[in-house]
Specification:
Length: about 210
């Protein structure tokens, strides 16, 4: 983590038309090449990617994956999509879990959140426009759950964990209008700040380096 604050841009794009999500959401229409459904490296052209060191032992996910983003926007609304991937020794990046969230509905009903905040499914309150939550700030904090595509996903030795952060995931996942109009398809930013970090809570049977 950088010692000083850093904002990294995440522009929207259409590289995710070659992805597993696109293949599933369009019954294969948007992924005519089989590689699109099996390898995320093309889709990752429009993502910020974060990759762990290689696993030394078999590692499995045990429980819900929770994502917390410290984000910056220039438009009235924003949109985030995150995937958790298994990266093979040959570089193939396979999606294990995925989730999306419009920034304007990130508000959580804190009265329904238990003490283990990072390990539960956030309960959403009704849509909260930017003007109601942060009228003078570009900064927002969002958290949401990622659903696994298979029971108990796992990594094998020499494989790595990768987290991909997108601001659009067409054609499967886009904000509904008028929220989509409010994003203006502008570049968004992920803020790196030691005081308010972005992070992913990933319960596994072994520590991940």
């Amino acid at each position: 983590m950088p010692r000083d604050r850093l904002e990294l841009p995440v522009p929207p794009g259409v590289s995710t038309v070659c992805s597993r999500d696109a293949a599933q959401g369009s019954a294969g229409i948007f992924s005519p090449l089989d590689v699109c459904a099996k390898d995320s490296r093309v889709a990752e052209g429009n993502a910020l990617t974060f990759t762990s060191r290689a696993m030394t032992e078999p590692t499995a996910i045990f429980g819900p994956i929770n994502v917390h983003l410290n984000a910056i926007r220039d438009a009235t609304d924003g949109y985030w999509s995150v995937t958790v991937n298994d990266v093979a020794p040959d570089g193939t990046s396979t999606v294990l879990s995925t989730g999306q969230l419009p920034a304007s509905i990130r508000a959580v009903d804190e009265a329904r959140v238990c003490a283990r905040r990072a390990a539960i499914t956030p309960h959403r309150s009704i849509r909260s426009p930017w003007t109601a939550c942060c009228p003078s700030s570009r900064e927002t904090r969002s958290r949401w759950i990622l659903r696994s595509s298979r029971p108990r996903p796992r990594w094998h030795p020499e494989h790595r964990l990768r987290v991909d952060v997108f601001t659009a995931n067409p054609p499967k996942a886009l904000a509904f209008r008028p929220m989509l109009n409010a994003t203006e398809f502008k570049t968004q930013y992920l803020r790196f700040d030691p005081d308010t970090p972005s992070f992913i809570n990933l319960p596994t049977n072994r520590p991940i380096g």
